[in-house]
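Subject: for your reference before the review

Hello V.,

The reviewers asked for a structural picture of the protein, and I figured it would be easier to keep everything in one thread rather than splitting it across files. Below is the amino acid sequence we used in the manuscript, unchanged from the supplementary table.
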Amino acid sequence: MKRFLLGALPLTVALAASPALAVKSVTVAYSADMHTLDPAIGDDVQNWPVEHALFVTLLTYREGTTLVPWAATDLGQVSKDGKTYTFHIKKGIKFADGEPTDAAAFKYAIERVLDPKSKSPQSGKAGWFGNLEGAAAFVDGKAKDVSGIKTPDPYTISFQLIKPDRTFLNYLATPFASAVDRKAAEKWPQDYSHHVVGNGPFLLKSWVPGQEMVLVKNPNYFDKAHAAKLDEVHILLSLSDQVALLRAQRGGVDVLGSGVPSAQFASILQSPQYKSYVHDAVQIGTYYVYMNTQKAPFDNKLVREAVSHAIDKKRILQLINGRGKIATQILPLGLAGNDPTVKDVGYDPAKGKALMAQAGLKNGVSTTLLTSTDGDLTKIAQAVQQQLAVIGIKASIKTLPQAEWINTMTTPGTTAIGLSGWYQAYPDASDFLPILFKSNQYAPGSWNLSGYKNKAVDALLDQAQGVNLKASVPLYQKAQKMILADYPVVPLYHPVAYDFVNPKLQHFSHHPVWGFLYQDWDLK
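And here is what came back from the structure prediction:
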């Protein structure tokens, strides 16, 4: 996720005078560097589309959120008790170095994720694959492999769960479950992210951190019906939003990965010239302020409640040109479990001041607010800083590049308060509440940023995981109300993406899981 291309990169690059050698190339620009390309680690909205373009999973999503087979021949066979899943793998899928994409590659990948040394957000017993038979023994170093993953032949793999989990198939469609080339991963144990060997519709040609990444079409990709239509995708990194927009207006950038910049948002949307460039889509996600319940002063519930009343969400939406819908809760609009009965806490700084006094902090307190270099989050951080000051919380802002920001806030104990966001990895409330609030997710690399711990909530979330979708909804809604009553986060807004796209680019859409589907893009 070479130096920046100072000369405008045209949409179609000719390598030679002969039309036969024309290369179909598209340029995307991001304001941040890519965090990682290691599918065991990366789970943010910038690197997931690239990982999805480089690595193949057993199942996937194409249009919408309906699961379809990818490396698997079908959606698999499930035992009557719902605890055993068996898949047959298509033959002939190879990594770029010629290694086979077989059952062993999938088994290795999932064991690699489970290994705590991987620092994967899904590592250990608490991760998505901790429910596999033998996972605990493997994680504890008592077994060399996971007994619940069986490979009876090179193209058959089965998974034995300890208890049924309706979302297990969804896990298998995420990059965490991508087949991984063991030979390459073990050759570069400390820097696999920069040396990934893929098997997807694209391959990684180059990546100069903070400058540019280049993806090239995989000539040996197995699924010809869904092969990449472009020859190359150039991804410019750490390019300011304003410079990226200027280049896009001149034809040198085709897609603004970070969306239409706030400063130019109104003028772009009102301009007839750019009407065909703008695509908007409501995202299944939530941006929020998190407060670490394990660190002072936010270990005091009264302080967290005070912060909830101090935040002016309408003002925050104004700062981002209304590109969102005010959030009253964590579960976003469009996701089963979103609860229309949940009312907003309400902007009431006077009440916030009274709560601070009740907490014994009438004279105020100092803290540090963590955010990223993303333009919108920087603006929001400044607004939150001002709003906190009104109730007596003096917050200095610490701004970090994306990769460092993610690493810092997912390291327990390093942050007291900060800004973050979460988008769906699969269409289920279990992709939000357990990941963001279960006690065992307050761990290195995991996303319980608030250090929230509530045994009653944990029990409800576990119960919801073991029942069907319809039965899970009231359980998740009950758990969410319990979480909100403890004020570990302040939900801010559910985002609406406004993408700026060269109209010559065909088949562009903002996928509800993958964001950008590079392999679908084509040129007129």
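For the response letter, the relevant points are probably these. Residues 12-38+191-281+498-523 form a domain with the D-Maltodextrin-Binding Protein; domain 2 fold (CATH 3.40.190.10). Confidence is low (pLDDT under 50) at residues 1-20.

Happy to draft the paragraph if you're swamped.

O.
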